[in-house]
Design goal:
2 copies of one chain form a homodimer. Chain A contains 5 helices and 5 strands; from the N terminus they run ααααβββββα. With 141 residues, chain A is α+β, with helices and mostly antiparallel strands. Chain A binds a DNA duplex (30 and 30 nucleotides) through helix 2 and helix 4.
Chain lengths: 141, 141
Amino acid sequence: MARLQAQTVETMVTSYGLKMTPQRRAIVEFLQASRSHPTADEVLTAVNQKFPMTSRATVYNTLNWLKGSGLVREVFEAGIVRYDPNVTDHHHFVCRRCGKVEDIDSEAIGALQFDSLPGNPKIENYQVTVRGICGDCQQQK
Amino acid sequence: MARLQAQTVETMVTSYGLKMTPQRRAIVEFLQASRSHPTADEVLTAVNQKFPMTSRATVYNTLNWLKGSGLVREVFEAGIVRYDPNVTDHHHFVCRRCGKVEDIDSEAIGALQFDSLPGNPKIENYQVTVRGICGDCQQQK
DNA sequence: TTTTGAATTTAGACTCAATCTTAAAATAGA
DNA sequence: TCTATTTTAAGATTGAGTCTAAATTCAAAA
């Protein structure tokens, strides 16, 4: 599963005429290592472990740039905005009880058939959000 | 396509021990008539045409109650929260250029096959978000 | 119809995520 | 190393959404 790559970011940053900084590197590394879907605040807290003075603005600037470049995805569930460093085509499962968001490989759901959508739009991609109760919550009853 | 019904709301409101008020009625009627996906602010503005003093709190209280009762759905796209009075199982198309959100009947997309999802969750429902360029935006180039 | 108590409304204060501003600091290239 | 440019930090600002308290409205019962 192709996730956010530090190398990709370094290359893109310079090709966009931007500069690579320790803060950006720390943000990217944290996202890259993350197996969950952190919020902006969780990113800020984590990055401040390494760079105690990193400001909120820097985190948001970087996240927004990564988002605009398609290197992370924004996930909104239950009023909370999260960031998903998984760049591969994939879907999400959301637990109605604990709110957890988990990735679903695109192979786990067969390719969708679109007959003809109203207004004949040009389809670029699609994303499935599956809702229910996760395994953990089922056992805790 | 089954949309939010004023009658349903009147019945539910009383069965929940709640009271039906002109403000709630106006909010429901606006949503019911709406063919798009209005924001909370658009609802507030519209309802104030009829009841000039309707407060933001009332609109949010009502929207949250409708949402909790499954009578409207919350749609988040491009940082904007919208409300969808369409209660039927259906999907969404989002235009990457103009941001418009359009309904897609569930029949337009065949039923999905879920082999086995990680963690064996209990699946309750799923929703597809299709992204691309809408017909209008394709012509305007 | 009137009374009565609970639910609801309003207006504005409040909260919190996210953005903006500006001076100071850091970066990449020459 | 030097310099122009970008980026950063800190705090101010914005704006969506929630909360509060006092006044009002609803509907069930008398």
